């Protein structure tokens, strides 16, 4: 599935935050916030918050995460 590179970056950072170890959470959260801020600035949406942008991307993120989990399971099944 083809995606916009900036969107792909945000979705990957979000996935990384949700799947990282607890000691990496602050770094992952900072990286996600930086990407969200960059997207908001690039689009010129000064009145949109990070939270609102994440809510708007929630369905896309679910698709992305589902595909990532399927990809991980396939990789693990090849190792058996």
Give a quick summary of the entry:
With 80 residues, the protein is mainly alpha-helical.
Please characterize this protein's 3D structure.
With 80 residues, the protein is an all-alpha fold. It has one domain (5-79). It has three helices and no strands. The protein has helices at 5-19, 25-43, 50-79. Helix 1 (5-19) packs antiparallel against helix 2 and helix 1 crosses helix 3. It starts with a helix and ends with a helix. The relative contact order is 0.14.
DSSP helix fraction: over 70%
Number of domains: 1
Uncertain ranges: none
Give the amount of beta strand, in percent. under 5%
Give the CA-CA distance, first to last residue: 27 Å
The string of secondary-structure elements, in order, is: HHH
Number of strands: 0
> What is the radius of gyration?
14 Å
* Tally of helical runs: 3
**Largest beta-sheet details:** none
Whole-number average pLDDT?
Answer: 92
Shape: globular
Structural class: mainly alpha
List the helices and strands and how they pair.
Layout lengths: L4 H15 L5 H19 L6 H30 L1
Helix pairs in contact: 1-2, 1-3
Distinctive features:
80% helix; globular; mainly alpha; 80 residues; 3 helices
